Amino acid sequence: MSDMEHLVYLESEMVDALKEYLRAEQARLDTLTKIADEFESLSKKATQDAEEYLYHPVNAFLTVKRFMVDWTNVNQLVKEDVASQYLNNVSQHEGYFPTPEDLKGAGKALFRLQDTYKLDSTDIAEGRIYDVQDSPHLTAQDCFQLGRIAYEDADNYYSAMWMNEAIRQLEEENPPTIQKAWILDYLAYSTYINGDPEKALQLTYELLEIDPYHERANGNKAYFENELETVARQRGDRGDIEEADRPKEVKRSAHLDYLPERDKYEALCRGEMVNMSPEREKKLKCRYRHYKRPVLYLQPAKEEVVFDKPKLILYRDVITDKEISRIKELAAPKLRRATIQNSVTGNLEFAEYRISKSAWLRETDDEVVRRVNRRIGTITGLTMETAEELQVANYGVGGHYEPHFDFARKEEVNAFKELNTGNRIATWLFYMSDVAAGGATVFVNAGARLRPEKGSAAFWYNLLQSGEGDYSTRHAACPVLVGSKWVSNKWIHEYGQEFRRQCYYPEEQKYY
Predict the structure, then answer these.
(1) Chain centroid to CA 487: how far?
(2) Between vectors from CA 291 to CA 290 and to CA 294, what angle results, nearest 5°?
(3) Please, are residues 280 and 272 in contact by the beta-carbon 8 Å criterion?
(4) Which 3 state secondary structure label does DSSP give 179?
(5) What DSSP string runs through 346-378?
(6) CA–CA distance from 102 to each of 108, 129, 136, 200, 419 (Å)?
(7) What are the tens digits of pLDDT across the range 181-227?
(8) Which helix (DSSP H) or strand (DSSP E) does residue 111 occupy?
(9) Is the peptide bond before 310 cis (omega within 30 degrees of 0)?
(10) In a 3-state reduction of DSSP, which class is residue 194?
(11) For residue 342, what is the DSSP state?
């Protein structure tokens, strides 16, 4: 998200360049004038508050899409005539343009949000996303681009869904933003792959009525007709091909990286399946604590136990807005796509199940980093000498981290080997922003859910007091639906905690 803000301002500069060119050839370039006015309107709205504008997943998609599709069309129109000044201005900025991979990523982020939060494509296209105000609408061409992103990623479920949505939006448009034949071409094939050859053939007939010489459609027509005849013979029924009107339910296929707990993970993200009985809830506490530490007598920690097994503590008002701003300022130039540690090799690598940007801050970077590290040590009673550096992470729209453990399991023999500080005994997680929708931290095995609240911090032990891993701490960062989520975390390691956390044998095991 932080990287995308420059696109908003870049787009504003490009609109200015385009307007200057249009002033030179206003009469001949009426089409470009209309496009520029539309872009200028969007840009003015976005630059009023770039961060808030990009909070919305559709705005984020449309910003990338404009660069990859609409601006490309503009450039083609300009190249039809003398436009050297404008093109020179554009060429100076092309190095900052999004890539095709960025467009694909923005589209897949929307699909991920649809999966997790069960969002309807029509609701998204018509600007209805939860209670978010001023949600942009999608044109038929916008919906087509989403369908094509899914198509090129072999995701025929979402390809068919968004191509159907493109047709719905096209019926309401005047003038149309895209040719219906383009939509039908993709929709027919995706429908066939989704298991409905009758409907695919019907769509192909419709395409051929528009363009009788469409080469691929004519080839598909013969193929679909032959397949339907083969199926009819196998049934022993020469049956009527007009079964195309029979409704078929298309179901989402399993993810290639299928997680056994995916359904529960996504349900928790939606606020469902939270496992807390009234009896257990009565035992949870909210209180001021000093833990017999002198500095906390003056300013006690605001401790709220929000879950019992595992014991999840939320500390309120534990980091100030000024400290948050400084940490974000320090981290911004260092942000890179977050990595995970390979459980076999111990090496760091990228993974589709963790989409965020992160940076590491040392104590020597700034007094604020030293101060918050000391605060974590004071409240937890654990030494920070063997803890990892403070990690700052930014999750933009669709940013997430699927279910994982913070601690290394027994088979992960190379994890943290280079650190030589033992396993991760505990996790401290600062929430450095509120999130308009989505972005919760969920514990899939326990059925717990924490909502991000700016200025708060979550704390839990990853290891039981026997030293064994606590498998109830398997957790995930839910996709951000609307907004931008900033967190910073401290992974605290075993070594140095021997006299700070009492050990128990398994039969005496406690969860705190």
Answers:
(1) 15
(2) 60
(3) no
(4) coil
(5) --EE--TTEE-EEEEE-GGG-HHHHHHHHHHHH
(6) 10, 23, 20, 31, 34
(7) 999 999 999 999 999 999 999 999 999 999 999 999 999 999 999 99
(8) helix 100-117
(9) yes
(10) coil
(11) -
